[in-house]
Amino acid sequence: MSRRTSPDSPMLFEDVPLVPDFRLELNARKAGHWPVAGADEAGRGPLAGPVVAAAVILDPKRIPEGLNDSKQLSALRREELFVQILATATVSIASSSSTRIDETDIRKASLDAMRRAICGLSIPASFVLTDGLDVPPGLACPGQAVVKGDARSVSIAAASIVAKVTRDRMMARADSTFPAYGFAAHAGYGTAQHRAGIEKHGPCSLHRMTFSPLKKVQGIELDSD
After folding, report:
1. Residue 131 in marked binding region
2. Is 41 annotated as a binding residue?
3. Cis omega (within 30 of 0) for bond into 35
4. For domain 22-201, which CATH number applies: 1.10.3720.10, 3.20.20.70, 3.30.420.10, 3.40.50.620?
């Protein structure tokens, strides 16, 4: 039996890229919540370095043009928007170290960094939009987790840019202390260059020892997150 698709079926638009806007923030405002913060993190997947979270409250009258998921932007464009966001919005940044990631797990460490970033805002948020599946526990306000939030909400997109640029800068500085791994080039992700550095020199204090292939170095049998 053949299956027909209605002209109005969302399946026809699966390949159309999402463009973030301010609608989720305005919906929260209509429900009585203001200001609204967006929150996101960068660095869940790397083998080394911290996970960095950012929380951003945008000024509706001064939203920088071109905000988008940080992964969709060039490094130069992220840097430009980073400067604009810091000049026009309320921003807070927090991180969880590789040690904390190993002591808990990457999900818990990411959510804790996000919680601290939100709690660190100089203007308390009345509502929070977070990227992904989870709202951090322990917040003083309600929140909403938004799948692909950095492609749907400009506040989350702004937070993703701030978190990404901050983390990239941190890893570039780490490169001068640990030059054997090429952190400035790959920010701690598991590239061939990075894995070759680990194999030749062993791990450093920034490495996440519960992540493969690093857990094999110490014979750790835990699954990586």
Report:
1. yes
2. yes
3. yes
4. 3.30.420.10
Is 180 exposed, middle or buried, given 0-12, 13-18 or 19+ CB atoms closer than 10 A?
middle
Q: What string of pLDDT tens digits covers the 225 residues of the chain?
A: 434 444 444 444 455 557 899 999 999 999 999 999 999 999 999 999 999 999 999 999 999 999 999 999 999 999 999 999 999 999 999 999 999 999 999 999 999 999 999 999 999 999 999 999 999 999 999 999 999 999 999 999 999 999 999 999 999 999 999 999 999 999 999 999 999 999 999 999 999 999 988 987 665 444 433
pTM check: above 0.85: yes
Q: Tokens standing for 159?
A: 């937070």
Is position 225 annotated in a ligand binding site? Answer: no
**Which residue, chain included where needed, has tokens 């901050």?**
166
Q: Where are the domains of the chain?
A: 22-201
Burial 63-78 (b: 16+ CB within 10 A, else e): bbeebbbbebbeeeeb
Give 208's contacts (C-beta < 8 A, 6+ positions apart). 46, 47, 48, 98, 101, 102, 106, 214
Contact assessment for residue 67 and residue 225, using Cβ atoms and an 8 Å cutoff: no
Give which of 147, 172, 135, 1 is closest to 55, Cα–Cα. Answer: 135
